[in-house]
Amino acid sequence: MTRILVAGSSNTDMIIRLDRLPRPGETLLGGEFSTSGGGKGANQAIAAARAGGDVSFVGCFGADTLGDEALAALAAEGIDISGCRRDSAAPSGVAQILVAADGENCIAVAPGANALLTPADIGSAESLFDGAAAVLLQLETPLETVQAALETARRHHCYSVLNPAPACDLPAALLPMVDLITPNETEAEYLTGIAIENDSDAEAAALALHARGVKDVIITRGSAGVTLSRQSPAGQVSTCHRPAFAVNALDTTAAGDVFNGCIVARLATGEDLADALPFAQAAAAIAVQQFGAQSSIPRHDDIRHFLAERRH
């Protein structure tokens, strides 16, 4: 089984680049404006497809020009969009992104039709779960829809990955259905109450997530790298930390999405989770050196070339 199913959001990103991020109440002039395809679900689906995955996408789009363009972009990547639905009750999702010269960003999202993705849509797309190696989910669509997707993934014996972004309170019944959770430091702190300032903090947060029922945990930590923690069926926990690749970050938008899409693409080939980390980290490192979300997502050969260069 090599097919990947991504269910989630799609947005059009409206990006303004500035020397620095504005303070509350401040207006800054002189920023450069551009638009790009985005949304955590669509970003992750495209990342997985460019990394070599056979990807299907389930999402809801408005009956508007932005929806036309977003669906066309997914199809152009070879992604199966048969599980997508159009709804005239809301516009397609948009995100306003401010990007500073040092690569940091802040993002405001108007979810639009993403908020109309329902458990019934998951039911309509159930045939796509059959035979899928992995199901990748985020939290930019309704929580009950995410839960329905996890339940469906479990019925079809799919390996389920939850990127818990944006962070929110999760019901106790949800996390035990997740095979792998991939929070960043902020999201891990939100879920566990543990502020992550070093490796020990990351290990403690991972243990807290294991205690809530998750088997595998990856905490992405920006320039500090990643922490992988795995719990065996017998309850034994093993942890490793991998440093980040040192690069000049211009725009961190979608770096986490690229990481998640590439992790799932490697898992779908049968690669072990620990062995998949360098590939996903390399993909994210390439992405942050370019502006935009989907426009910055690298392809399989680019990632392999980056890794080969770093080994020399």
Automatic annotation (TrEMBL):
Write out the GO MF terms: ATP binding; metal ion binding; ribokinase activity
**Cofactor(s) required for function per UniProt:** Mg(2+)
Catalytic activity, reaction form: D-ribose + ATP = D-ribose 5-phosphate + ADP + H(+)
- Residues the record marks as active site: D257
Q: What is its EC number?
A: 2.7.1.15
Choose any GO biological process term that the UniProt entry carries and state it. D-ribose catabolic process
Q: Which top EC class is given?
A: transferase
> Can you cite an annotated GO cellular component?
cytosol
Chain sites annotated for binding ATP: N184, T220, R221, G222, S223, A224, G225, G256, D257
UniProt keyword Transcription present: no
**Major localization listed first in the record, in broad terms:** cytoplasm
- Source organism superkingdom: Bacteria
Residues reported to bind substrate: N11, T12, D13, G39, K40, G41, A42, N43, E140, D257
Can you say where in the cell this protein is located?
Cytoplasm
Query: Per the annotation, how and in what number is the cofactor bound?
Result: Requires a divalent cation, most likely magnesium in vivo, as an electrophilic catalyst to aid phosphoryl group transfer. It is the chelate of the metal and the nucleotide that is the actual substrate.
Residue positions binding K(+)? D251, T253, A287, Q290, G292, S296
Query: What does the UniProt record note about how this protein's activity is regulated?
Result: Activated by a monovalent cation that binds near, but not in, the active site. The most likely occupant of the site in vivo is potassium. Ion binding induces a conformational change that may alter substrate affinity.
Keywords (alphabetical) are: ATP-binding, Carbohydrate metabolism, Cytoplasm, Kinase, Magnesium, Metal-binding, Nucleotide-binding, Potassium, Transferase
Pathway the protein contributes to: Carbohydrate metabolism; D-ribose degradation; D-ribose 5-phosphate from beta-D-ribopyranose: step 2/2
Q: Does the keyword Nucleotide-binding apply?
A: yes
Q: Which residues form the Carbohydrate kinase PfkB domain?
A: 1-298
Give the protein's function. Answer: Catalyzes the phosphorylation of ribose at O-5 in a reaction requiring ATP and magnesium. The resulting D-ribose-5-phosphate can then be used either for sythesis of nucleotides, histidine, and tryptophan, or as a component of the pentose phosphate pathway.
Report quaternary structure and partners. Answer: Homodimer.
* Similarity comment text for this entry: Belongs to the carbohydrate kinase PfkB family. Ribokinase subfamily.
Name listed for the protein in its UniProt record = Ribokinase
Lineage of origin: Bacteria, Pseudomonadati, Pseudomonadota, Gammaproteobacteria, Cellvibrionales
